[in-house]
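Our preliminary data section would be incomplete without showing what the modeling component actually yields. Below, a chain of 276 amino acids is followed by its predicted structure, encoded as tokens that our downstream tools consume directly.
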Amino acid sequence: MAYSRVGEDTVLSPDIAILDIDARHWRNLIKLFGSGKDGRGNLLVFQKDGECVKAIHTKRGAILDFVLPDKEHWGALLEEIDADRMGIMPIDLPRKFLFAAQGSFFRDDDWDHQIMMIIEALKPFVREEIEWFPGAPNRIPELDPEKIDDYFDKFWPDKSCVGFFVFEGRRPYTSVILGKNKGRIDLFTTLDAFQLADGPLDWGRDAKRVAEICAEIHYPLHAALWIELETLREMTKGGKPISFLRLARSRGRAALWPAPVKWRLYLWLARVFRGY
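Predicted structure:
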């Protein structure tokens, strides 16, 4: 994986090593953060003068001879074509977005800054110019490149790794291990690098073994979240994820280990004073 231009201040190293990416772990990671609880995809309907001129299912492609029914039948339509959500927009909206996006950043900006500015340009189009049914996608997060860089330096020391591990019983469902050095991410891998992509792995008992292997072949594991798949899904549905995580940890359904003092303090402050 390489990029044509990476600036001095980008969070990604130009020499990032992408190693041992287990295909199942990668697919499941995308599925976790994809749209819809069961990943059925979305229906995008493009109109001109109030008439549908093109319909695209994001997983199955174009739908030929599509006719948009009256609004009271939209729910049945989504069930029929196996989609979670429908977005209706004017046919020229993609062109307008591309025009706005190309003027949202400077060509000499770092790669990650350019992406963040494109996302900022996308927000008003998603919020104001697309009619969503039954509701709009999850809120697009606010991104501040300078704050992200600051958090990287404050909470994640150089020459260390952070991990994200999700389990179905004793079998890892997905995993991500990121390494950082000189202020930038220089490693992206999964448990496949440890020959543990398919388990069996008792994360409550074997987390230290994973940390030891990580230190031997990459960097020491600075912090990691270990969590059951269903627990993670429940946590992301609610409005207080940190409070839910605290409860899940007390019930043995999740663990933050290693758990640096700064991380624990930040989570406590976010839960107590911000209601997360």
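The mean pLDDT is 82. The chain has two domains: 13-33+147-274, 42-133. Preliminary results of this kind motivate Aim 1 of the renewal.
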